[in-house]
Write a structure and sequence with these properties.
The complex is a heterodimer.
Chain A (H helix, E strand, L loop, with lengths): L3 E4 L3 E4 L13 E3 L2 E10 L6 E2 L19 E8 L5 E8 L13 E7 L10 E7 L9 E8 L6 E9 L1
Antiparallel strand pairs in A: 1-2, 4-11, 5-10, 6-9, 6-11, 7-8, 7-10
Chain B lengths: L7 H10 L4 H6 L19 E11 L4 E2 L11 E2 L6 E8 L5 E10 L13 E10 L4 E6 L6 E7 L4 E10 L2 E3 L1
Antiparallel strand pairs in B: 1-9, 2-8, 3-8, 4-7, 4-9, 5-6, 5-8
The chains are: A mainly beta, B mainly beta.
Chain lengths: ~160, ~170
Amino acid sequence: MPVRFLRNAWELADVSWESPLPVAVANARFVPADTLLIATTNLFPTGERDLLGFTNPDLPTLDGCGQYRKLLWIYFRERSSTTSYTIQARATDHNGAPLATGWLTIASGTLPGASDPNASYWGRLEIPATGDAYYDQYRIVVERTSGSGYSLINKIVGVR
Amino acid sequence: MNAERITRREMLKRLMIAPVGAAVLTTLEVREASAAALQRYYDPYFVAVLWEGRTRCDALWRSLKGDVVRILPTVHGATPYDRLYWTGYALGNAPVNVDMRVLARAVDHNGVPLGSGWREIGQATIQTPPMRWFRVEIPEGHWDEYRLEVRSATPRLVYSRLIGSQGYWRE
């Protein structure tokens, strides 16, 4: 017995090579991007601080990020003085409390900049560089290790 | 008694329409007269035309809009787009030799750029025989503003379109 289906909303058609069953892409989600943070970090003083300027190592820079596959850290440096960065992440429970103390370091290194330490620079880092994120909280720490002080202007976009 | 002779196809069509009723159908909102709008999973915002038009290329670096003012973006509000596609066609009988570069920057909540200047995403030379289409894919998405610049030692007219794609992923 042939299998039939409703074609074009009104026509019954037999399934064949010429008229296969209609299919649609299911479970597809569009990828809107959300701006999660815009902040200027004062890097005139030395010492580690997160993008919001906090030095308390337990405070997250970003919270409620569990839905984002990637974070894009876009920044503008007024100078390219040598600056180190560390990106840490952790998960939280249903109440938003971290599952445990401390952080998982997912990336660290020297913040890319121009070869001239006095030159401004636009930069962009993907968090994480490979694979997917889906962590609940992030702490992004920067520290100017040499050169003149400057302002680091940041924007973080979460991509689903 | 008048008997109406109808075909089997016509009968099926009436059966499908009858429960809704002609009066209801006439009041249904009509959105777009395109087949794509009838697709169940089609979203008109999945891809968007960010710019479309004609550019006069000469020896100066010009935005696709024609200006040489480097602080002006060619497109803005491009944050949702995962990648951009630039498709065009250069008029003229001579081989095409057009330099192009893509600049990008981010803005704050007020639409003000985070800093001066641009990040140069890439630069290339489009070389094709005359009367050919070209296409450039810009994979670095989610910047807020882009400036696409072109120049050509031989003056050319380029018709082009810039598409932003949001992309999708599967669960």
